[in-house]
Amino acid sequence: MCGKGPWGSTAWFFLLFCILAGVAYVADSDVIYLTLGVRSLIAFAGYLVMQIGLWHSENKWDEEGSAAWLEAARGNKSSSPEELEDKFDTARSPARVEMASLLSTREVEIPPEKLKAAFPVPWGFLVGWWLWGISYLFPIDGSASIKPTGYGIAALGVCVFVSIVASVPMSDAVMNRLDTKKKILSLLFVSGWITLGVVSALDVQTQLAEAEGGDPGTSGLFWVLWMLGPVTIIVSQKELFGARKMGTLWEESGKPNFRPVVYNMGGPLFVWGWFMLWVATSGIPGKADGGDIYPDRGQTPYIPIFLNLRTLLCFIGGCGMVPVVRFLDYSHDEDGKWLGENEDGLVFSKWWVGTDGTYFGVFLESPWPFVIMWST
């Protein structure tokens, strides 16, 4: 039995490795030279600014938004999740609606000024997107010359478009629970992401075709990265919204999630998706000659990513530690029962066993998957 834990995003995480391994096996290229030039560094800086800015704005909304809701509902934010659920969740406490001393969830209204204070304009998110878009103005060889392709200019435009769609209008739709507006913006957001993947691919292919000795036919693997990157980021947003305090539950019912899931796959998928896109937009596919696997590529330094079994095992083992640790930690956070002597209060006295397998099965909730990933 697999258990009742959230499997979808974890399955997608490992499926990505299978897809990438299969495509890399049949690809013409056997190495990706990730150039550390102007283009890649601006893009990486944009990602960092965006990530930090997004975390700051979303964390502020989660903490201050939920606190404002509890204040309006006469709740105590120091209460345990069980106490808050019993007080405000009518599904868990049907009799609550008859208690005159408590407010109905439907009657809770956060003052507009506190809503806006909890969800300010996400400038870090916007600036990060714009920096990523500016990186398309520079060539993939790492030089500082500004000579964008038509597709690169289109990619810059898409970045500006997506940044605007996903910032102030989306904030308004989330804050005020405007379902129709949120669906329209989400559709535009997804469309923008897919478009960005396509124009990014065409931008790099055009540059490869124009470069001396460039062969756009070697970019088949890159098309997979350009498409899987955006799709993975979209999947991560779905996961993150469902796990947050003021995410999916707020939008659907108008109340905070009293049990936010810390160990969710949204963050790892978000980072992994951006990494794939970064490699695809700043890397150059090639063939590693057995006699010269580190060729001279001019003055620009680079990181070679060899498409072989060793690299695959490194990525699976290193990145795979994140979801396998989550199995046990998620179960522990959700009050999964410890096996063996741990039931008597001797936690970790039997380190080779974990929780009872309610969420992901006994094996996955043990330390052994983590040991296997480290060994890999």
Mean pLDDT: 83
Neighbour order of strands in the largest sheet = 2-1-3
The assembly state of the depicted protein chains is single chain
User: What is the tally of beta strands?
Assistant: 3
Taking all Cα atoms into account, the compactness measure Rg is: 24 Å
Structural class, by secondary structure, is mainly alpha
> What is the overall shape?
flat
CA-CA gap between termini: 26 Å
Helical residues, percent: 55-70%
Question: How many structural domains are formed by the residues?
Answer: 2
- What is the H/E order? HEHHHHHHHHHHEEHH
Number of continuous helical runs: 13
Low-confidence stretches: 90-105
Strand content: under 5%
The largest pleated sheet is described as: 3 strands, antiparallel
Transmembrane segments: 7-25, 31-50, 117-138, 150-172, 184-202, 222-241, 261-281, 301-328
Keywords: Membrane, Transmembrane, Transmembrane helix
Key words describing this protein structure:
376 residues, mainly alpha, 2 domains, 3-stranded antiparallel β-sheet, 3 strands, 58% helix
How are the elements arranged and paired?
Blueprint: H1 8-26, E1 31-35, H2 38-72, H3 81-88, H4 112-118, H5 123-134, H6 150-165, H7 168-175, H8 179-210, H9 220-243, H10 248-253, H11 266-282, E2 283-286, E3 302-306, H12 309-333, H13 368-375
Antiparallel strand pairs: 1-2, 1-3
Helix pairs in contact: 1-9, 1-12, 2-4, 2-5, 2-11, 5-6, 6-8, 7-8, 8-9, 8-11, 9-11, 12-13
Keywords: Membrane, Transmembrane, Transmembrane helix
Transmembrane segments: 7-25, 31-50, 117-138, 150-172, 184-202, 222-241, 261-281, 301-328
